[in-house]
Amino acid sequence: MQQEIVLAMLAKEPSYGYQLRARLRDALGPLGDALNAGQIYVTLTRLEKAGLLAVERSADGGDRSDRKVYVLTPDGQQRVAEWIAEVNWPKPDLAEFHLKLIAASSAGLADPVTIVDIQRRELLRRLRDAQRAAMAEPRHSNAALLLEGVVLRLQADLRWLEACEKNWTHRRSGS
Amino acid sequence: MGRILLVGRLALRDLRRRRTEAALLLIAILAATTTLTLGLVVRDAASDPYESTRAATRGPDVVASTGDFAQPADLEKLATDPGVTEHSGPYPVIPGELEASGRRSDVQVEGRDATVAAVDQPVVTQGNWVSDDGVVLEAAFAQFLDAHVGDPVTLGGRSFTVVGLAVTAAMPPYPGTSCIVSVGCANGAVPDDRDLPPELLHNPGLVWLTQADARSLAPARGPMSYVMKLKLADPDGAEAFVDANSGDHGGTMMPMQNWQSILADATELARDSQILLLIGAWLLGLLAVASLSVLVGGRMADQTRRVGLLKAVGGTPGLVAAVLLAEYLLVAGVAVAAGLAIGALAAPLLTESSAGLVGSAGTASLTWSTVALVTAVALGVAVAATAVPAVRGARSSTVSALADAARPPHRTGWLIAVSARLPVPLLLALRVAARRPRRVVLGVVSIAVTLSGIYVLLVLDSVLGDLAGTGAYTEPQVAVLRHVLGVWTVILLCLAAVNAIVLTWATVLDNRHASALARALGATPQDVTVALATAQVLPALLGAVLGIFPGGFLLFAAIITITGGDGDKATLPGLWQLAALVLATVLAVAALTAVPAHLGGRRPVTATL
Amino acid sequence: MNKAAGTPVLRTRGLRKEYGKGEGLVRAVDGVDLDVSAGETVAIMGPSGCGKSTLLHLLGGLDRPSGGEVFINSRRIDNISEKALARIRRTDVGYVFQSFHLMEELTAVENVELSALLAGRPPRAARRRAEELLDQLGLAGRARFLPSALSGGQRQRVAVARALSNEPLVVLADEPTGNLDSAATLDVLQLFEELHGYGQTLVIVTHDARIAATADRLFSMRDGALVDETRLTGGTAGNLGALIGLEG
Q1: Which of A136, B232, B281, C205 fits a 20 to 30 Å CA distance from B437?
Q2: Residues of B in contact with C98 (CB under 8 A)
Q3: Which ranges carry the Transcription regulator PadR N-terminal domain (chain A) (predicted)?
């Protein structure tokens, strides 16, 4: 889990760990199921060590981790502001698949069209899962918006696979 | 120059793209122009030929004959009247019987000089003027006899040869001939139950011989009749002259006829035909308008989109309007030319009763005013048809003109609700009809107009049948009027048929999509075919009923009023006749719409959806 | 969803459709063998012009094949009369079109009841069924609206209701989301999922991967032939979180 995300989720107000988790779940919907609590606490500990956030014990005392209230330090606030201003976009790693097809074809390891078919089946399954999840979400919810993004990216990938298939079929019949 | 070429090319291409539509449009405008031409030509024929004949033949202002008791001396004395400027005659007139190629007719034989007379010198239209043993026939009479120059004829037992045909303004053409023999004439049909004096001439024709030949045919008993033609100083005062002089000549009456009454007699028949024709022209005009508005209305919706398209690729509203106008002008131009030609060629068929007059025998002439009027009407249609989409196209934004692909169908809620309770073909038929109420109205009007016309034709036909026996008209006159009615009927039926097909075709095209959809949802091709046809037949049924009552009644009343006739004498068609007429109309419309509807019902579904 | 259960609702053998002749011969459908079981959702995907719409028309008896056989519920339909074909269309098949094809002058409920009326149902029963269907599809309040007053998604739902009004054996949908935006597409997808849940047999022709992904089986079509079959039922892709790269 990216440290900045956790930091940013704390920017609103000092929170308990379970509050932080609930906020993430709300934003991610069913996609948030992948997050496990441990992962988040590991990240929080790292951030504390880095001096980006401080921990306050809650009034009723106790030492259990779920009684800790996490607060951003000025450094932490600075980091969040930087992160918000950052222009950053995940790069789809198409080159790997592309090179896989070329390698398979040139070395005669496998039929690229078969690889494309298998890949497409996988993507279609993912699409269906995302689609089902999207349909289960209430309209205009945060999670529905995220799922729509997922669906649209998968569609784009499928379209590229279509182009790959057409191209490799053409090469096969052309050669 | 390039602009004109562009406009022409765009216009031609659009017409070629929709050939059927262009052809139907042409037919509709053509029908209108033809009818109009006919009406106008016949109107001219009713007055002009007599005038020209009168001029060409030095027509008399007054024709005087000796009648029963007057003597040639009385005629000579009349010639010295100070009001008379010129005269010819007296000429001998003999009653006789002429036989030509098996046909017999009574005739009045006028003995003439071979030299040219100062007044009333008949103009020879074929052959030569009288010579010994040579007879000249009045042109309309010759037409009735089917006699030609060179034919042998028997006259009063003697053989003669037809040497010529001629026209005169001294007497109305056959069969309106006035009586100048002393034995008297019976014009018109003679009722069988009346015994006429045997020597009376029955519908006599007019022939000319040399004086010598004429005298050789003189009857053994009774005095010879004489006729004299007079020119007056004051032709307009002919009637007063007749009143003053026909009276007392030593206790005898001298029969006289002034040129005005000859004119009236000569043109009577043409005028009767003309009234029929003009009323026919009105009906045909209405029908033409009905089909035009369907065609043009359908095109306008299409063209609004086309205007948007032209504008989208940079055409100015002016260019767009020019293209539309060019299209219509092209069609209207062809229709005007063809309509004038057909009208001019067909008019003589209706005016042949005037064959006894110069200028009308086979050449019912087109006047400039007729050409101008017919052209103006056709151009009016073209301009009106252009103006609406052009203005609408220029005013609407390009985008909305493009988006507004077709006229949205009309919704008639109650009809849709009612139709839900009907069997499938009727359900579809009512909905097809309800989508375009204006077209349904046009369909009803078109059939109603046709049926009114046919109703009146039926009444007139029976009236003519009755008249033939009463003497108001002679057989040939009735034949001429029947002929006019016949021409009327043919044009009326043709146009009505074109209308029915136009309406059906417009409906089929308009419902292409809805029909395909209905079939995709499980309607059979028969269902759709029956629906498309029924959508025409139902309005036709309504139109047929309305066309008879009140349409036909009103139209007949109008004709009676205009002609000043007596409507009480007319036998109105019986109820069963009317029922048969309605049934026949419905069947005819069903038959006419069957083919386009069948094509519409069978169209492959997938091609449309 | 069990393919072994009974005979297929829809079956084709060697189905062909050709247009033109000689040089210009186009094989729009070229030897298609297809079995669709009851309750199954089958999607056929392919680029435009691959012949998938033509195939759909042949399946529902809207068009006649040049060769091969089509069976609906074991009854051969490629060689029956036009009238019998019309009967099949009205009782056994429901169509959903890309451009909805609603009658503009009819309200939503009148559009839905139309196919029932064409099938000769009593008008009262047809109206009741149409209202029920619109109610089920969440359009109860729009029953008296004309299509022009409805959104794209609503129009397509009306069209689906019309397709269902005669309780067809199979619903054939031709690019049902082709004219819809993303949100309306989701609407229609949801609707098809529901139909699938009720056990309605569906054949959908599309080039929208989203709709294809909801199918039990997916065929790819190329140049008139089915070239690849993917069974999408059972087994999910696994953790949803994997889709957004949140794990690890």
Answers
A1: B281
A2: none
A3: 6-81
Domain residue extents for chain B: 1-56+266-275+294-407, 67-253, 412-609
Contacts of A135 in chain C (CB under 8 A): 186, 189-190, 193
Report how far residue A31's alpha carbon sits from residue A143's, in angstroms, rounded to the nearest whole number.
8
**Domain of A56, in residue numbers:** 3-85
Six-digit token pair at B34? 């033809």
Interchain touch B–A (≥3 Cβ pairs closer than 8 Å): no
Q: How far apart are CA C8 and CA B271, in angstroms?
A: 82
Selection from B604, A155, B542, B250 nearest residue C17 by Cα: B604
Shortest distance between the Cα of A60 and any Cα of chain C, in A, equals 34
Q: B337: which 2 tokens?
A: 């030319």
A68 with A109, same domain: the answer is no
**At residue C15, does pLDDT exceed 90?**
yes
Q: Which of C88, C92, C103 to mutate to test the interface with B (most CBs of B within 10 A)?
A: C103
What predicted TM-score, i.e. pTM, was given to this entire model? 0.71
| pLDDT band (50, 70, 90) for residue B360 | very low
Q: Which of A63-77, B60-74, B450-464, B518-532 is predicted with the least confidence, judged by mean pLDDT?
A: B60-74
Q: Is residue B134 within a helix (H) or strand (E), and if so which, with residue range? A: strand B134-138
Residue C30's Cβ-side half-sphere holds a number of Cα atoms within 13 Å equal to: 15
Which 8-state DSSP code applies to residue B549? I
Q: Which has the closest alpha carbon to B473: B550, B387, B565?
A: B565
Of B434, B520, B525, the CB nearest to C62: B520
Q: Nearest-CA residue of chain C relative to A33?
A: C241
Phi, psi of B51 (to 5 degrees): -60, -45
| Tokens (6 digits) for B497 | 């048929």
Residues A70 and A127 in one domain: no
Q: Does residue A145 share a domain with residue A123?
A: yes
Q: Which residues of C touch A120 (CB under 8 A)?
A: 230
Are the Cβ atoms of C209 and A1 closer than 8 angstroms? no
Q: Count the domains in chain A.
A: 2
User: Same domain, yes or no, for A123 and A64?
Assistant: no
DSSP category for residue A82? H
Does the beta carbon of A134 lie under 8 angstroms from any beta carbon of chain C? yes
Instruction: Identify the pLDDT of residue C2.
Output: 42
Which residue of A31, A120, A122 is in closest CB contact with C246? Answer: A31
Q: Give chain B positions within 8 Å (CB) of C86.
A: 519, 522-525, 527
The amino acid occupying position A2 is Q
Q: How high does pLDDT run on average in chain B?
A: 77
CA distance B123 to B58: 9
Q: Looking at the structure, do residues A170 and A149 belong to the same domain, yes or no?
A: yes
**Chain A: partners with 3+ C-beta pairs within 8 Å:** C
Nearest to C115 by CA among C60, C195, C59: C60
Mark whether A103 and A153 lie in a shared domain.
Answer: yes
pLDDT for position B477: 64
